[in-house]
Amino acid sequence: MSTPHAAANTSASARPSLVVVGNGMAAMRTVEELLKLAPELYDITVFGAEPHGNYNRILLSPVLAGDKSIDDIMLNTPQWYTRHGITLHAGDPVEAIDRKQRVVRARSGICVPYDRLLLATGSKPFIIPVPGHDLPGVIAFRDIQDVHQMLEAARQHRHAVVIGGGLLGLEAANGLLRQGMQVTVVHVAGSLMNQQLDQPAAALLKQALEARGLRFLLNAETAAISGEARVQAVHFKDGSSIPADLVVMTAGVRPNIQLAQSAGLHCERAIVVDDTLQTYDPRVYAVGECVQHRRATFGLVAPIWEQARVAAAHLAGAGHRRYVQQATATKLKVTGVDLYSAGDFIGDAESEDLVLRDPRRGVYKRLILKGSQLIGAVLYGDVKDGPWYFELIQQRTDIAAIRHKLVFGQALCMPAAA
Length: 418
Ligand SMILES: Cc1cc2nc3c(=O)[nH]c(=O)nc-3n(C[C@H](O)[C@H](O)[C@H](O)COP(=O)(O)OP(=O)(O)OC[C@H]3O[C@@H](n4cnc5c(N)ncnc54)[C@H](O)[C@@H]3O)c2cc1C
Known about the structure:
Blueprint lengths: L4 E2 L10 E5 L3 H13 L5 E6 L5 E2 L4 H5 L9 E3 L1 H6 L3 E4 L3 E5 L4 E4 L3 E4 L2 E4 L3 E3 L12 E2 L4 H13 L2 E5 L3 H12 L3 E5 L12 H14 L2 E3 L4 E6 L3 E6 L4 E3 L2 E4 L3 E3 L2 H5 L8 E3 L10 E3 L4 E3 L7 H15 L13 E3 L7 E5 L8 E7 L4 E8 L2 E8 L5 H10 L14 H4 L5
Parallel strand pairs: 1-9, 2-3, 2-10, 3-6, 10-22, 12-19, 13-14, 13-19, 14-15, 21-23
Antiparallel strand pairs: 4-5, 7-8, 8-9, 11-20, 16-17, 17-18, 24-25, 25-28, 26-27, 27-28
């Protein structure tokens, strides 16, 4: 690797150098945890492909909906990095890692040597490779730039099509609707949020979103996108089509592992790490959506926060922690729609369901039990017990004694605690 110019902080510092690739949620949470444990241990350099400080990606949905501003969602401003003596290269992605020389090279040509390297490159949105997917006006929903593009489109155009009826797609659709667009959500499966919800809850959700003005095309397979200077229509395999001035693809993400792969790090679906978040190279750690731990990959922040704690402890030299996968919970961030899903919501031949339906109140609750343990929960309309059920799932609590009233919630099961 050629070394056009070395970065300023590669001088004769006595401290080892930690280079962080990615300036997103996993990376900076790990750095924050590390600063708590060993603030003086490393000279830290962070490279970020995006031209900003670190922000709360989760809150892009409320920004799109007009409930928050970009300033509201900033987590670490450039001043924060300066205050902690961290060198930030924002808008300058790392393009190569030379593991023999232990140096990274960024697009600008800056090269920084490392003693420890932390990879946190996140995911890339999956763009369905149908004809027309590269037309102007076809975008993903992952970063600030995407949100700017959506807001711009909402000012100038009318018809939005969101491809993908999962969590992200519905949040995008809701935001675009709030910005005054006419929005159709196209989903290949027969029910919305099929990764998180069972069908009765998905049907209630669809009804509620239709009442707000969203349109849905379920069991719809996109065949092509067409337009001249900009996208104009989306076409389906059954021969039908709908007008579109903006197409937002929310059909899943893929771990961003190109850099790690080209550096010869062992990757399968993502960068393979052990229980300490170390890759196959002991000097290189990885956290977040770019990692694979025991076959699992990740798409929510709760497990990533735990990875950050474990990786930071090992980087700090206090390496007693081990990363253990836990059940996860999700909530839809659409104001006025209460939805909560946790753990295994499908179950199997050995599991049992407890269901409560109250159509008039628009409430649906389904609890999935295995033996005397709660393993999953889907709540719609009344989600206040979500965190409690989630705790019962995580703690593997024996619920035999409260099984008969479990579906009525914590207040009836444990009046003193609620
Ligand atoms: C709109 C939206 C809403 C969401 N809502 C929720 C929610 O409600 N709950 C939840 O738990 N999760 C939610 N998520 C998911 C959550 O945001 C992610 O799980 C989390 O951001 C993953 O963190 P990460 O650091 O692995 O990846 P990211 O936050 O994506 O950070 C990776 C960073 O690395 C940068 N990068 C990539 N390659 C390089 C390189 N070579 N050099 C330098 N930098 C590079 C990228 O530009 C990016 O900034 C949401 C995501 C989106 C997009």
